[in-house]
Amino acid sequence: MKVFVDASLLVYLNVKMPDDEAKLVEDFWLDLLSNHLLYINALVLDEVIYVSKRKYDVEFKETIDFIDRAILPYVDVLPIGLNEYLRAKELMVKYGLRPSDSIHVATIENHGLQAIATEDEDFDKVGLKKLWIKT
After folding, report:
1. Helical segments of 36-98, H only
2. What is the homologous superfamily of the domain 2-131 according to CATH?
């Protein structure tokens, strides 16, 4: 299945967590890598860098190194262009989604992806198939 990976998962992979939680996140990531084709867009990378620093105090360089080493070799980065903006603005108005979430949904729709790996419940509004860690 073609799966869009939301920033939340990548942030959790990047930050220090209790061992039991880290294992759940890592196992979920490995399952995604083994069984699906994974995609992101540049906005996901922006969110991972920003949230890792703001919320968890992870230095920019550390997160950039993590992305370059552990993410980019395994996922395809899809473009964000005018078509994504045009669809995103419709989604913002219709569902009240945040602009970044709307751009993610537009990316998913415009590139024929089938699911999103996220814990964010806002994506439930648009009826996307959502994959997340089973606890």
Report:
1. 42-56, 60-66, 82-95
2. 5'-nuclease (3.40.50.1010)
